[in-house]
Amino acid sequence: MLWARFIIVGFFSLTALSLISYQSIEIFHAVINFIQDKHQLK
Q: What angle do CA 26, 31, 37 make, to 5 degrees?
């Protein structure tokens, strides 16, 4: 049972990490687009 619990916890942590990294990449792109739009307005 310990191995099953370890695999489940590892799977959920990997899923959470991938979601967090995906969100941070999206935010990073949004910030870059925002900065580029600011520069284009000038």
A: 125
- Element housing 13 (H / E): helix 2-41
Please give the Cα distance from 9 to 22 (Å, whole number). 20
**Residue matched to tokens 């969100």:** 23
40 pLDDT more than 90: no
Q: What is the pTM of this model?
A: 0.58
DSSP tally for the chain: helices H, then strands E: 1, 0
Q: Which amino acid is at 28?
A: F
